[in-house]
Amino acid sequence: MATTFRCKLITPEAQVFDDASTSAVVPIWDGQMGFLPGRAAFVGELGNGELRVDFPDRGGARGGSRHFFVSGGFVQMLRNELTILAAHAVAAEQLTEADAQNEVNAARGKPTTGLSPSETQRVNAARQRADAKLAAARKFRSLGGI
To answer: What is the residue-averaged pLDDT of the chain?
Structure first.
């Protein structure tokens, strides 16, 4: 049985990474889902939140993990390859709590009264995304990040 799987994170702007991984925890629309080598096929809607990818040990060096804030898109596991197509992805080391709080304040400052249902849905989605980004920034900071 394989001990790693290929993991790719892709946004409309760039391929963020493509590397061998030992596990990944992905935010999906209704929670989180873990992926390990050899997992059955899966397709799902990406949620807003923290993506954690664990990497294998290499050449005597410990593999470690990378964390990202991702939102919007899809995730697919097929033939030992996890592809995460995200509308937005920010590496955790680039997140700051102050910037995320400013985004929350801006999103919360937008009124929803008098808006069409689709406009209200967009405002609410922006609020949820901002809240999730702030939570990810706080978690990263608690792990020793900026």
So the answer is: 90
